[in-house]
């Protein structure tokens, strides 16, 4: 038997708690881009500009023209578990915003050299706050355009192991670019730009619909290979595009799925896609698709994964049938022997 005194229990410091949370949510520069982009979208921005240096390891800067933060709330904004997006437990089951945990800014500012500048449109003066490796300065007034600008420099400066595990600039930027692609597909009405090492990589002016955004990001040719689909089943709604069967890929990376506007990965939908293309595509090859699923908030739990990349459906079978039948129904009416008709 154990013969010594029981070890005493201590509460972790806020700084340590934030660092642990950062480990879950902020894996690499692309995670910062995702969180900050989601915040800008939640803020109602119509234009979002992103600038990265050295794969995001040196600098990630996001500028939006959204609602800004009230000067008296700035410290709260970077405090853990503080959010303007959830008021009570009921809200948790009908989340409309991308964020809601109040964790991102606390985590990011804990592991970087962080500066936030913001001004709500109805105020004349902006406010600035900096956090250096978790140490916050008092907010001070500054000149700023309406909206919010966040600079994240030297990511993981105080978590050397994490910094060491960063991959090459090109790899880190590829992850950033992928996060950017997902969010920009979900928000065609927002004007986005993405720069890397002072080079303009994407310039996506606001457009009316998904088809136009697909064309901006992936080119006219791919857009011409996409077939519009839609379907309804007992409260679930599916819409978007699925690729011509001879437009195939080696991986599922070009299968974009969004649930209530949020990019996710989902096994059920993957299986339904495989089934829908059975006999039309070589085994092992993957179709391209851009699928948007609208689900009543009480039929999907988005609170199961720290980065919300997976969700849980109350009735996955219904989802499976909806995806399968919407695609199959469309394919029945098409003759794949002849060239695709334009899909205006
Ligand atoms: P969450 O998004 O889960 O609420 P965050 O840590 O990402 O948590 O942000 C905390 C709060 O800071 C948000 O609830 C929001 O009120 C405010 N905020 C963050 N980014 C922005 C932004 N770009 N524009 C306006 N407000 C913002
Ligand atoms: Mg957030």
TrEMBL record:
* Function recorded in the entry: This protein is involved in the repair of mismatches in DNA. It is required for dam-dependent methyl-directed DNA mismatch repair. May act as a 'molecular matchmaker', a protein that promotes the formation of a stable complex between two or more DNA-binding proteins in an ATP-dependent manner without itself being part of a final effector complex.
Question: What sequence ranges are listed for the domain DNA mismatch repair protein S5?
Answer: 214-332
Family per similarity comment: Belongs to the DNA mismatch repair MutL/HexB family.
Q: Which organism is it from?
A: Caulifigura coniformis
Please indicate which superkingdom the organism of origin belongs to.
Bacteria
Q: Which GO terms describe its biological process?
A: mismatch repair
MF annotations from Gene Ontology: ATP binding; ATP hydrolysis activity; ATP-dependent DNA damage sensor activity; mismatched DNA binding
Q: Which GO terms describe its cellular component?
A: mismatch repair complex
Question: Which UniProt keyword terms apply here?
Answer: DNA damage, DNA repair
What protein does this entry describe?
Answer: DNA mismatch repair protein MutL
Boundaries of the shown chain within the full protein = 4 to 347 of 658
Entry keyword annotation includes Flavoprotein? no
The keyword Nucleus appears for this protein: no
């Amino acid at each position: 038997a154990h013969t010594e005194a029981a070890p005493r229990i201590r509460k972790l410091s806020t700084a340590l708690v934030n660092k642990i949370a950062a480990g879950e949510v902020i894996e690499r520069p692309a995670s910062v881009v995702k969180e900050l982009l989601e915040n800008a979208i939640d803020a109602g921005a119509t234009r979002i500009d992103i600038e990265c240096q050295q794969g995001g390891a040196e600098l990630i800067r996001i500028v939006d023209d959204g609602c800004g933060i009230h000067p008296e709330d700035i410290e709260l904004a970077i405090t853990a578990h503080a959010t303007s997006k959830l008021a009570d437990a009921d809200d948790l089951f009908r989340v409309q915003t991308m964020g809601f945990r109040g964790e991102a800014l606390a985590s990011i500012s804990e592991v970087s050299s962080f500066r936030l500048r913001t001004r709500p449109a109805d105020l004349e003066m902006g406010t600035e706050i900096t956090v250096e490796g978790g140490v916050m300065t008092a907010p001070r007034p500054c000149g700023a355009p309406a909206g919010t600008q966040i600079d994240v420099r030297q990511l993981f400066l105080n978590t050397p192991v994490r910094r060491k595990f960063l991959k090459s600039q090109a790899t880190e930027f590829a992850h950033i670019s992928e996060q950017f692609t997902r969010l920009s597909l979900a928000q065609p009405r927002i004007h986005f730009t993405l720069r890397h090492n002072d080079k303009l990589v994407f310039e996506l002016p606001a457009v009316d619909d998904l088809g136009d955004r697909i064309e901006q990001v992936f080119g006219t040719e791919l857009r011409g290979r996409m077939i519009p689909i839609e379907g309804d089943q007992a409260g679930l709604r599916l819409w978007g595009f699925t690729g011509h069967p001879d437009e195939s890929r080696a991986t599922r990376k070009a299968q974009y799925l969004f649930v209530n506007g949020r990019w996710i990965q989902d096994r059920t939908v993957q299986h339904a896609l495989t089934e829908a293309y059975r006999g039309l595509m070589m085994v092992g090859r993957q179709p391209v698709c851009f699928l948007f699923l609208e689900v009543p908030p009480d039929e999907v739990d988005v609170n199961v994964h720290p980065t919300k990349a997976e969700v849980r459906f109350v009735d996955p079978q219904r989802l499976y049938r909806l995806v399968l039948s919407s695609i199959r129904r469309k394919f029945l009416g098409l003759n794949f022997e002849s060239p695709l008709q334009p899909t205006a």
